[in-house]
Amino acid sequence: MSLINVERIKLFSTRSPWWCMIIAAALSIGLAALATGLASGADELQVTPAMSQFGVNLGQMVIMVMAALAVTTEYRFGTIRTSFQAVPQRVALLLNKTFVVAGLAALVGLIASWGSWAVGYLLAGNADMAINTAAEWRLLFGQALVYGIAAIFAVAVGILIRQSAGAIAILILWPLLVENLLTLIPRIGDDLQKWSPFTNANQFINGGQDMGLAGGDSAGPSTGLDPWWALVYFAAWGVGLLVIALFTASKRDA
User: Angle at the Cα of 41 (from 37 to 46), degrees rounded to 5?
Assistant: First the structure.
């Protein structure tokens, strides 16, 4: 428990986590207000809970940046060496850091998703924004799981890359650009995208959702997996990458 407290203190002793949390929540809720407000002006009866989550994915990107910085700033300023001297068991130290960051990310995800829905509920007028289906409950509570796993993913990348700019570039470009460009690869592109981690995270959140004015029952490419199996697959990516990162950190110089 002492290691968890140490990592919590270290995390909140800098400004970047506070700013990242505020920006993630504000971005998610602000874009929810924009999306549901504009949609309700066009045809408010077609506004759905899924539309209120328009900005939550962008908030997730900000939280991944926060998670990566929690590691890379220690390497940048050399404080990681002091941490490793105080706690020779590097794996235990980094696991506790991951636990603290992932827990905070999950909390922010919960605030972002429910805050976005609340704003959408207020702005949607006569639209049915009630949470009536299992898919809609999964949509709102599931954001916490996806945020938490995405933070594990980001911590692992931070441990492996060590440089803030490089880690952030990978974490932003991979889900937003690389996975979408995989379909351009002849023959195997569609399969590569289907088995990409963030595509499966999207399948867990948006699979079976009523997208309202956007049309259809889901957003983004379908992986063919049941939403909960898609989450398990996404989690396997995060845990697997973390295991590789921990092994690497235990073998090389700080």
Answer: 85
